Amino acid sequence: MPTYTPHLRRIRMPRIRTTGSLLMLLTLGTSAVAAAEAYPSKPIRMIVPFSPGGTSDTLARILGQKMTEQWGQQIVVDFRPGASGIIGTEIAMRAAADGYTLMHGNLAQYAINPSLYGKLPYDTLRDFVPLSLIATAPQLLVVNPSLAAKDVRGLMELAKASPGKLNFGSGGSGTLAYVGGELFKSRPAPTSFTFRTKALFWH
């Protein structure tokens, strides 16, 4: 079975800024927050529906530190990964709508998942209110240095010549990397990939 290697080489291609990180507040909590005179009066929980170590983790920690400094209350980052962000998003939706639960989300939860899955345990338009766009980030295509592909065209030619022999890794169905891989497969040149759902790699 192919294994992940940290020694990856970037393939030259246009950078597309598709990852939007959002800070969300439970809908019913907005009026309560507005009416409170001493908000926040206790620590605030910020749910991150993804695993530690990724972009969402980094942004949430930086944001949480700055919010703690400004508000004088601790921002507790709570990681609840799984199912392309669905698990953590549902946990946030079911939390008390009192203004003390925030969620750090991205495009996967609020655009991809509603389009990909027929039924979700939450409604992004009804159950959450977007507070702010935190950051955008590029998506990059990388390969193992031992792969005989120097650019995107070379990778497509290699995939065409070796159907079913290249493996693409993503964080799972519904993630940005997964959608990017599917878009790559849909390009005019016929390609065939096997999908893995762990570390991101071409091998």
Instruction: Look at the helices and sheets and give the structural class.
Output: alpha/beta
First-residue to last-residue Cα separation: 10 Å
Q: Please write the CATH class name of the largest domain.
A: Alpha Beta
Number of structural domains: 2
Strand order of the largest sheet: 4-3-5-2-6
- CATH architect. name of the largest domain: 3-Layer(aba) Sandwich
User: Runs with pLDDT <50, length 5+?
Assistant: 1-19, 195-203
Shape: elongated
The CATH superfamily name of the largest domain is: Bordetella uptake gene, domain 1
Look up the CATH topology of the largest domain. Answer: D-Maltodextrin-Binding Protein, domain 2
The portion of residues assigned to helices is: 25-40%
Report the mean per-residue pLDDT as an integer.
76
Number of helices: 7
